[in-house]
Design goal:
- By secondary structure, this protein is mostly helical.
- The chain is built from five helices and two strands; from the N terminus they run αααββαα.
- It has a two-stranded antiparallel ribbon.
- It is rod-shaped.
């Protein structure tokens, strides 16, 4: 990839801003290719706006979405709930949940699978 010297780039830009010469004339005067002048008129190449994220090192345009998501997830972390010392969670099942649990309990008992003592 050939890069123009900063002096040539400045000359092309100043001539473009003046608007007195055509792209072809600017290219001839500065000694650059017409496509180079046309590219400068079109604006920066998409690659020129890319940069490395200082946190993760990924190539990004603007803010790093991955690092932003990681920060948001860290803010939403839940604190662990202290479990009771005796292991009893003191759950009360009502309605359909209780019926499903009873069916499962009966199925385990009839199949001869071990069932905890407090589950009844």
């Amino acid at each position: 990839m050939n890069l123009l010297k900063p002096g040539r780039v400045a000359a092309i830009r100043s001539l473009l801003v003046k608007g007195q010469a055509s792209r072809r004339a600017i290219a001839r005067e500065v000694g650059a290719d017409r496509s180079t002048v046309a590219a400068m008129v079109a604006g920066p190449h998409p690659r020129e706006s890319l940069r490395r994220c200082p946190d993760c090192g990924g190539i990004v345009e603007g803010r790093c979405k991955a690092c932003g998501l990681k920060r948001r997830l860290q803010k939403r972390r839940f604190q662990p709930i202290d479990e009771p010392a005796d292991g009893d969670l003191s759950l009360e099942l009502h309605g359909g949940a209780r019926k499903r649990y009873q069916r499962l309990y009966r199925r385990k008992v009839s199949a001869g699978q071990p069932v905890s003592e407090d589950a009844a």
